[in-house]
Amino acid sequence: MTRLAICPGSFDPITYGHLDIIERGARIFDHVIIVVFNNQSKSPLFSVEERFKLIKQSTEHLENVSVDSSGELLIDYATQKNAQAVLRGLRAVSDFEYEMQITSMNRKLNENIETLFMMTNNQYSFLSSSIVKEVAKYKANVSDLVPKPVEEALNKKF
């Protein structure tokens, strides 16, 4: 049986913090599917299609990672793909409260899919897509925060 994990998020845009979690997850699982979800409570800078492309370019070095997008519930998507786990990154204790609520609901909906939390590397503990967009808007250098394709896409947007 293939050990499959779903790594969900809005990834607007993908950062080195996200990649840290994805790369480490790819060492644990046989296959990781990064799934772009369109969070209705956020106003994205990049379209789902743009995010999909940027993630694909940023993860092409990972043979056991693929990219998808979905508009359905995460747990329904994971069930359809026969995933064993949902892979989530944590930066700080404040992330845990939010993630715990989501995990509890997912567990209620399907108790067979586990959620695996990974602490991001300390060098990325401050990093979020929101903060990257904010500093990029002011033309600050983001090359050490995001992969090259994302840096170029941010420069075009701003």
From TrEMBL:
It comes from Virgibacillus siamensis. It catalyses: (R)-4'-phosphopantetheine + ATP + H(+) = 3'-dephospho-CoA + diphosphate. Belongs to the bacterial CoaD family. SUPFAM superfamilies: Nucleotidylyl transferase. This is Phosphopantetheine adenylyltransferase. HAMAP family: PPAT_bact. It holds the Pfam family CTP_transf_like. It is found in: Cytoplasm. The gene is coaD. Reversibly transfers an adenylyl group from ATP to 4'-phosphopantetheine, yielding dephospho-CoA (dPCoA) and pyrophosphate.
